[in-house]
Design brief:
The complex is a heterotrimer of chains A (613), B (327) and C (195).
Chain A (H helix, E strand, L loop, with lengths): L2 H9 L9 H6 L3 H29 L10 H36 L7 H20 L27 H29 L12 H33 L12 H35 L6 H14 L15 H29 L8 H24 L1 H7 L3 H31 L5 H27 L16 H31 L37 H8 L23 H17 L6 H21 L5
Helix pairs in contact in A: 3-4, 3-5, 3-15, 4-5, 4-6, 4-8, 4-13, 5-6, 5-17, 6-7, 6-17, 7-8, 7-9, 8-10, 8-11, 8-13, 9-10, 10-11, 11-13, 11-14, 13-14, 14-15, 17-18
Chain B lengths: L1 H29 L16 H30 L8 E8 L2 E6 L4 E4 L1 E5 L3 E8 L4 E4 L7 E3 L5 E6 L4 E7 L11 E7 L1 H16 L26 H7 L7 H9 L2 H4 L22 E2 L4 E2 L2 H9 L1 H4 L12 H12 L2
Parallel strand pairs in B: 1-5, 4-10
Antiparallel strand pairs in B: 1-2, 2-3, 5-8, 6-7, 6-9, 9-10, 11-12
Chain C lengths: L2 H4 L9 H27 L9 H4 L2 H27 L2 H31 L8 H32 L8 H27 L3
The chains are: A mainly alpha (613), B alpha+beta (327), C mainly alpha (195).
């Protein structure tokens, strides 16, 4: 099988393994990479959650001094950066990786080694960002790093260098994955799976990749300009040199708004998969769901300045962006109604995934409505930069994305790991999460409208913020505890060794037609698809359920070989950016030379390594 | 007008919330599956229904869009006219400077305005972005280093309105508050006179105490102070000589001015400091103990501020407090 | 072993690698669009000189532009030769392409050096910052393209790029065209449009 690569690698003394620790380093299997993303993202999620808990403990009392103002500012900056780039995005990536090839009937993604590279670069970026804590120099300028606070003059330490460079590293991972999944979905669908027959999660993933491909270059440019200001003394965002701080905001939000759709569209996709299965009827209005997703993505590039209403851009700009923001509420509303239409008239199976999916709808409605309130620009001048907007985005990002990702986790867990998660513990997780979440974030609407600004390390007594802040902290503790329940569930269920069948939920899509967990080659025979909900169709044609699919040998199926080079190239990328941090030190040129060498050496071997035996 | 817009959006949001969430609960209850249920009708969609639930939200949004655009244009129209009080706002890390160009006065962290008159603000920052926000009086407006922004408001009732910086601006963003004191015409005139008087008196000489030196709120009417009234009504003035000397020797004068008629100094203008409600930028009650502590240990009270710990002893701090109370 | 032949047919009929390079190019368009926007935002806003009209050497840059444009034609001819199995045509025109690439880079290096001597650095003013960043990144892309083309040339000389493997060259050619198109935007916007 892998003769040529082993010969080649053998000459270099390297033998990619099939099992054990090294098999994870060299894997190019989308399923293993998905698990790597999921495990890493979950750990970063817990770190981000811990940061949030400390924030909440500090804010529990007025004039509190649990943490210093400097550390607090690092906490909220890292909380935002971590949750967005190191938790929600890679948790979505876990599902892109594991499920997309299965949903479209493929054996792997278009570029398996590039896929592995994306993961290792992501991990490098996450570790790089968090290593800043070791130097007491964690980023402290807010997750959107506004100029000119982010300039060298006003942020003299390494904090914002870690931020700018860390995000660049993560950007490379996202762009590589964007190309990969875009090509995979467009080009590697099973015969008969026309785009308009694809599962909605695949559609939402496709659109998300397009958003990544078009928005990440903009933040890349912004970060490059910031880095040049900080490292080389240019004046892009330095007012004394003529720089314009508004330029940073425009560049950032042209990226930043599509980014929030990157965070929510995969969640929309997951919900669109879960609801039909647990209502036992198809998605209501498939075409509208697909087109509304496309419309949201397109419009999403036209609303960015609604994050800038308080900057005084003038009445025409304000009006245009206010109207565009309201417009985007229409396709979003259509989705919510279509989801409800899916459940209407169904036979609802109240299993854990369904709990979280229904919770998603309830929470996302609230987040969407507070978003509409924000779109009224003059009213937004009270709401923006206050706890009201903190409430809004947590309702859509936690009540939305996290609830949906959790639904996806409980839904696809049996397929990924081969055992069921405990239903009782799952429901307990749900109720604790729902209650804790609402206790934490609902009062923020009120406290924000009462005048509490965001990103403040403390507040004075006597303004009326005390009791609600305390309530929010209790809520946060309950929310944190709910995830302990989840962890306990995972451990208990893994140990129980109760095997999951291929199709525990009577699923509609192709992944349920193969064993749990799938064999390396996914499908013994690539299926031919005749319509939407392909697996329901197949079961119907066979008069009901299908027998448990057997595990087969897979001989004669060509799979890509494992490889060290994606990992090594990622190391090269990390070294290059670390070298950037040290560029003006004594050994600066040496670091850069070393990094570039590792990178070129890895790329060279990657290119000339045969992809398949 | 903005309030009305807010209430409009709140109304529609609440209505939609109630309708959709109750529909959701209804659906969950009514269509709960039971074991042995037959497969439900496999509906794929309904064009008519989908058109309706696209059109209705569009209509609701139109109801919000029209007043939104109208209000946007209105809020950008800065009122002009002789009756409008012009104020310049300069943001600093981590305090607010206020100037009255029509009156030739400079102050910090406490903005006195007359009730019932429009106040037009022209705003800028000396360093990083900040945002000027008086929640009870107006929406917020960011301040920039290279372009001025504008805002206007009108206080309809006398009172003390807290404000806060609303754009993250560094370590002490959380302690960059300010107060807007809305006063009657007479009270405001009294305030202006007192501030103008600080220009006539040199910082070294002790100033006469105002009529009610122990008042916590300056809302009480004060008689117009003239130099003759000052001399005539001066009771036994507290001994401010020590404090006056310390103010110079310790270097306070290097950053702070006690003269409201000249905008000078790196730090907040301290004319009127004795009567301000709060110190350290609008959040620390202006008691003798707090003021003494602030003077002695600024880096402990508000770590990171430009004001250094100068090694002021408690006794020295006391003298300075006595001195500052007269200003 | 030919990886291309082993792959099953793709849903669109376009090979994965070709779709990938097009996708990548699409993304890079936004990268350069952002850099060009920054240049345009700061056009005329420099607080001090040197200013564009003082130091641009339009004739030289025009020659470089023309060479880059021709190189796109040359790479088409080279690709043609590769697909036909015409070794001389393939390698000959590829060499010409690489040569043009070198000339362009040389022109830029000369220009940058000349600007340095005239006192224009990235730190000097907004023109310097935005100009060097935009054209510097473009030049980096050209350099990467030249390296890529050279490696294909070497592989071609060793006989490793038969018609069946022309796709690998086609990817590089597409990338080369992209780099050229970006310059076609930069040249008028930066050099010709002068206030």
């Amino acid at each position: 099988m892998a003769t040529s690569v082993l010969d080649h690698a053998g000459a270099a003394g390297i033998h990619p393994e099939k099992t054990g620790f090294l098999s994870w380093i060299t894997t190019v299997d989308h399923k293993k990479i998905g698990i790597l993303y999921g495990a890493s993202a979950f750990i970063f999620f817990l770190i981000g959650g811990l940061e949030a808990l400390v924030i909440r403990l500090q804010l529990m009392k007025p004039d509190n001094n649990l943490v210093s103002p400097e550390f607090y500012n690092q906490l909220f900056t890292m909380h935002g950066t971590t949750m967005i780039f190191l938790a929600v995005m890679p948790l979505s990536a876990m599902f892109f990786n594991f499920m997309i090839p299965l949903l479209i009937g493929a054996r792997d993604v278009a570029f398996p080694r590039l896929n592995a590279f994306s993961y290792w670069v992501f991990l490098a970026g996450g570790l790089f960002l968090n290593s800043s804590f070791l130097f007491n120099a964690a980023p402290n300028g807010g997750w959107f790093g506004y100029a000119n606070l982010s300039s060298k003059q006003y942020s003299p330490g390494l904090n914002m260098d870690f931020w700018a460079i860390g995000l660049q590293i993560l950007g490379i991972a996202s762009l590589a994955a964007g190309v990969n999944f875009f090509v995979t979905i467009i080009n590697m669908r099973a015969p008969g799976m026309k785009l308009i027959r694809m599962p909605v999660f695949a559609w939402m993933t496709l659109i998300t990749q397009l958003l990544v491909l078009l928005s990440f270059p903009v933040i890349t440019v912004a970060l490059i300009l910031l880095m040049f200001d900080r490292l080389f003394g240019t004046n892009f965002f330095v007012p004394l040199g003529g720089g314009d701080t508004m330029l940073w905001q425009h560049l950032f939000w042209v990226f930043g708004h599509p980014e929030v759709y990157i965070l929510i569209l995969p969640a929309f996709g997951i919900i669109s998969e879960v609801l039909p299965v647990f209502s036992r009827k198809p998605l209501f209005g498939y075409t509208a769901m697909v087109f509304s997703g496309c419309f949201i993505a397109f419009l999403g590039f036209g609303v960015w300045a609604h994050h800038m209403f308080s900057t005084g851009m003038g009445p025409i700009a304000d009006s245009v962006f206010a109207l565009a923001t309201m417009l985007i509420a229409i396709p979003t509303g259509v989705k919510i109604f279509n989801w409800m239409g899916t459940v209407w008239g169904g036979s609802i199976q109240m299993k854990t995934p369904m709990y979280f999916a229904l919770g998603f709808i309830a929470m996302f409605i609230m987040g969407g409505l507070s978003g509409v309130m924000h779109s009224a620009a003059p009213a937004d001048l009270q709401q923006t930069d206050s706890y009201f907007v903190v409430a809004h985005f947590h309702y859509v990002l936690f009540g939305g994305s996290i609830f949906a990702l959790t639904a996806g986790a409980y839904y696809w867990w049996p397929k990924m790991f081969g055992h069921m998660l405990d239903e009782g513990l799952g429901k307990l997780h749900f109720w604790l999460m729902l209650i804790g979440f609402n206790l934490t974030f609902f009062p923020m609407h009120i406290v924000g409208l009462e005048g509490m600004p965001r990103r403040v390390y403390t507040y004075p007594a006597g303004l009326g913020f005390e009791s609600l802040n305390r309530l929010e902290t209790y809520g946060a503790l309950i929310l944190g505890f709910s995830f302990l329940v989840f962890i306990f569930n995972v451990i208990k269920s893994t140990r129980s060794k109760v095997h999951a069948p291929a199709d525990p939920w009577n699923g509609a899509t192709l992944e349920w037609a193969i064993p749990s967990p799938p064999q390396e080659f996914n499908f013994p025979v690539i299926p031919t698809v005749h319509g939407r909900d392909a697996f329901w169709e197949e079961k119907r044609a066979h008069g009901g359920m299908m027998p448990e699919p057997p595990r087969v040998s897979g001989a004669g199926i060509h799979l890509p070989n494992p490889s060290y080079w994606p990992f090594m190239a990622a190391v090269g990328v990390l070294l290059l950016f670390i070298a950037l941090l040290h560029h003006d030190g004594k050994f600066g040129p040496l670091y850069i030379f070393g990094a570039v060498s590792v990178l070129f050496y890895s790329i060279f071997h990657w290119v000339f390594e045969p992809a398949e035996g | 007008m903005v309030d009305k817009l807010f209430r409009t959006t709140l109304f529609w949001a609440t209505l939609v919330f109630v309708l959709t969430e109750s529909a959701l609960v209804f659906i969950i209850v009514k269509f709960r599956g039971k074991p042995g249920d037959p497969e439900p009708k496999q509906v794929h969609g309904n064009t008519m229904v989908e058109v309706i639930w696209t059109a209705i939200p569009a209509l609701v949004l139109a109801m919000i869009a029209v007043p939104t655009v109208r209000t946007i244009f209105r809020t950008y129209e800065i009122p002009t006219g002789a009756d409008v009080l012009q104020v310049e706002v300069i943001g600093h890390q981590w305090w607010w400077e206020f100037r009255y160009p029509q009156l030739g006065l400079t102050t910090a962290n406490e903005l006195h305005v007359p009730v019932g008159r429009t106040v037009a603000l022209k705003m800028i920052t000396q360093d990083v972005l900040h945002s000027f926000w008086i929640p009870q009086l107006a929406g917020k407006r960011d301040v920039f280093p290279n372009r001025s922004t504008t805002l206007w408001f009108k206080a309809e009732e006398a009172g003390d309105y807290p404000g806060q910086c609303a754009e993250f601006c560094g370590i002490q963003h959380g302690r960059m508050a300010f107060q807007v004191i809305a006063q009657t015409t007479d009270e405001f005139a009294g305030y202006v006179s007192r501030m103008e008087a600080t220009g006539a008196v040199s910082p070294a000489a002790p100033a006469a105490p105002p009529a009610d030196s122990t008042a916590a709120k300056p809302a009480a009417a004060a008689p117009a102070l003239t130099t003759t009234t000052l001399a005539a009504t001066a009771p036994a003035a507290p001994d401010t000589a020590a404090g006056a000397q310390l103010f110079m020797m310790k270097g306070c004068i290097g950053c702070h001015s006690l003269n409201a008629t000249k905008p000078m100094g790196i730090g907040p203008n301290l004319a009127g400091i004795g009567q301000r409600l709060y110190i350290a930028a609008g959040w620390l009650k202006n008691t003798d103990a707090n003021l003494a502590n602030w003077i002695q240990h600024p880096q402990t009270v508000k770590h990171g501020v430009l004001m250094p710990d100068l090694g002021v002893t408690p006794a020295e701090a006391q003298s300075l407090v006595v001195y500052l109370r007269q200003h | 072993m030919d990886a291309h032949a082993l792959h099953p047919a793709t849903s669109t009929g376009i090979p994965n690698r070709k779709l990938a390079i097009w996708t990548f190019i699409g993304s890079e368009c936004l990268f350069f669009a952002s850099l060009i926007s920054v240049y345009l935002v700061y056009k005329g806003k420099s607080l001090v000189g040197p200013y564009p009209s003082e130091i641009f050497e339009i004739p030289l840059v025009t020659v470089g532009t023309a060479l880059l444009l021709f190189s796109s034609l040359f790479v088409v001819l080279a690709l043609n030769g590769c697909e036909q199995g015409n070794r001389k045509k393939f390698l000959g025109w590829l060499a010409m392409t690489i040569l043009c690439g070198f000339f362009f880079i040389g022109m830029q290096v000369y220009e940058f050096t000349h600007f340095f001597h005239e006192g224009l650095t990235m730190q000097k003013n907004l023109f310097g910052a935005s100009f060097f960043t935009l054209t510097g990144f473009h030049g980096t892309h050209v350099t990467i393209g030249v390296i890529w083309l050279i490696s294909i040339f070497i592989e071609g000389v060793r006989g490793h790029v038969p018609p069946a493997k022309a796709l690998n060259f086609e990817m590089a050619a597409l990338y080369w065209h992209f780099v050229d198109v970006v310059w076609i935007v930069i040249f008028p916007v930066v050099y010709l449009m002068n206030s």
